[in-house]
Amino acid sequence: MDMVLEICNLCKSYGEFSLRDINMSLEKGTLTGFIGPNGAGKTTTIKSILNIIKPDDGKITVLGMDSINSDLEIKSKLGIVLDDGHFYEDLTLRKMKNLIAPMYPTWDDNAYNFYIKKFELPESKKIKDLSRGMRMKYALVLSLSHGADLFILDEPTSGLDPLVRSELIEILKDIVFEGNRTVLMSTHITSDLDKIADYLYFIYDGKIILKGQKDEIKDQHAIVKGDTAVLLPDYKNYFVGINKSSYGFEGLTDNKAALKNVLPDKTVYEVPSIEDILLYYTRRFK
User: Fold this and answer.
1) pLDDT (mean) for 101-130
2) Which regions form coiled coils (predicted)?
3) Rounded CA separation 39/37 (Å)
4) How confident is the model at residue 198 (pLDDT cuts 50, 70, 90)?
5) Which phi and psi (to 5°) does residue 59 adopt?
6) What is the rounded CA–CA span in Å between residue 105 and residue 233?
7) What CATH number does domain 3-213 carry, 3.30.70.270, 3.40.50.300, 3.40.50.720, 3.40.30.10?
8) Which long-range contacts (CB under 8 A, 24 or more apart) does 226-235 make?
9) What is the CA radius of gyration of the chain?
């Protein structure tokens, strides 16, 4: 198995917040969703991967290289799309490209021209005049033009309207499928990951509390609905969380197979969305 990113026991403390023993592996040619509520530790983890902040403990290997000792070589092979940009606002897209291209020995002008046209980006326009969606596309164009192997995206679809978000999701699918590239996508918009993620890591309060293949996680869990009268005395052992009312109950189980053996057939089981799973686990740990 070809691992593009490996994080081992990453720790970082900021005052009252601590990132604790983060372990993560990204397989080549996959898209991994990194999810969790605001303040859970997603951005701290990403900045540690990028060597923007120094961890207190742990080891990070990117593309087979140590993240600290091989910082420049690693960054030449990364496609980085951060929520806050990092472009010179008064430059046009063409001038920004001319500034960036010489930094990469693998820069390919043909690839740049191809993607600029494909994503319909106006080269004569200034960065400050681009919509958020165009900024995201432009960052991807630059990454694709220097042959990035690993794309790290921090909230790339946040603040986009549904049509632009859908377009960006299709672009990300193509990036992985066509080039056998790897994507780590940090986001709180979990519906996007329902469509494209291969793997999920769920971080809460500085710790990874759930991880695995997306389809396996969804298959293991279920939204369960039924009459409260059928609940067993030890029902909490079968649920991540449960809501009861005069109309019945609804809950999330993390052991669908076991629960089906003890509850009546008339109980309803539904496939949960990633958002369902995120919300129930977040409530559980509060």
Assistant:
1) 93
2) none
3) 6
4) very high
5) -135, 140
6) 65
7) 3.40.50.300
8) 226/263, 226/264, 226/266, 226/267, 226/268, 227/266, 230/263, 230/264, 230/266, 230/267, 231/263, 232/262, 232/263
9) 21
CA-CA distance, 238 to 276, in Å (whole number)? 16
Encoded tokens for 259: 């629960």
Indicate whether 152 pLDDT > 90. yes
pLDDT given at position 85 = 60
Describe the chain by its helix, strand, coil percentages, rounded to 5: 40, 30, 30
**Helix 93-100 and helix 132-145: axis angle, to 10°?**
30
Q: Give the Cα separation of 57 and 159 in Å (integer).
A: 34
Q: How confident is the model at residue 104 (pLDDT cuts 50, 70, 90)?
A: very high
* CA pseudo-torsion sign 194, 195, 200, 205: negative
Between 158 and 19, name the one with better pLDDT. 19
Q: With bands split at pLDDT 50, 70 and 90, how would you rate the model's confidence at 129?
A: very high
Whole-number mean pLDDT of the chain?
Answer: 91
